[in-house]
Amino acid sequence: MLEGGKSCKGCGAAKIGLCKSGGSAMFLTVRNTLRARPGDQVTIGIDAEIRRTGFVLAYVIPLVSFIAGALSGNIIGMQLGLSGLDILGAFGLLFFGGAVSLKRLKALDKTSRMEIKRIVSDGEFRDDMTTEKELLYQRYGRSC
Q1: Residue 130 pLDDT > 50, yes or no?
Q2: Rg (CA), the chain
Q3: How far apart, in whole angstroms, are the C-alpha atoms of residue 71 and residue 57?
Q4: Which helix (H) or strand (E) holds 138?
Q5: Does the first or last residue of the chain, that is N or C, have fewer Cβ atoms within 10 Å of its Cβ?
Q6: At CA 118, angle to CA 117 and CA 121, rounded to 5?
Q7: Tell me, what's the pLDDT at 138?
């Protein structure tokens, strides 16, 4: 069970309305790789590989499709003597690449799960709890 707090409301899924983060409790199914027990308070997150895959599908593939369509449309347009074929090619491949990426993103969303990242050892969970990365930034990041 997840209590919707400040960090939950800042989540991307909550911002676009995929979940109800209005302070009520939610039930999530997550992978328990750290062997947390019922009653333990944990922090959860998305696996780094799934985040990278989602980034590539959402941003890289449509961008590469757009550029490849513009280049191929320009080359074919120059060969055939047709102006404006680069624009048609760019948006045509953008539409195709975007459709393929969207289909794969939906499949990824159905097959992936969140996982437990850390068990809160002191039994006290706060939204402002600092992670190891935040502690390193506080220690070394300010002097850069």
Answers
A1: yes
A2: 22
A3: 21
A4: helix 132-140
A5: C
A6: 170
A7: 62
